[in-house]
Amino acid sequence: MDEQVAARFEEVSALARQVVARLHQEIETLGFDPRLVQLQEIAAASYTLQTDPADGGQSLVGEWRDGYGIKVGELKFHADGSFFVEQDVVRPHPKRSGWFVEAVNAWGRGSQIRAEARLLRMPG
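Structure (tokenized):
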């Protein structure tokens, strides 16, 4: 990680941990056993800085990838304090028959963290 990326990561790391903790809460709220649905930790992502086209500020963007190099989640922390974090779950919903949990995501600004699951109806 280069110095600029490392500095920006340090600025948002406490918030990023809170956001991932909120994603863990969402997993439990859905009814999953948290030992069986493992979410990635913030240090496991690869980070870059990207210019936000909306305001020209520098956004810290991270990606989680699995052992095959397939993207399984992302983190975006914008210069204005807003953020979006998403991690794949890819499992049948534990409480709602006929539904599939594709991912959990969180968004907000500063200490305002909202989270939800992205559900899909099972085919058939």
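The CA atoms of residues 15 and 116 lie 18 Å apart. The beta strands are 46-51, 58-65, 71-77, 82-92, 99-109, 112-121.
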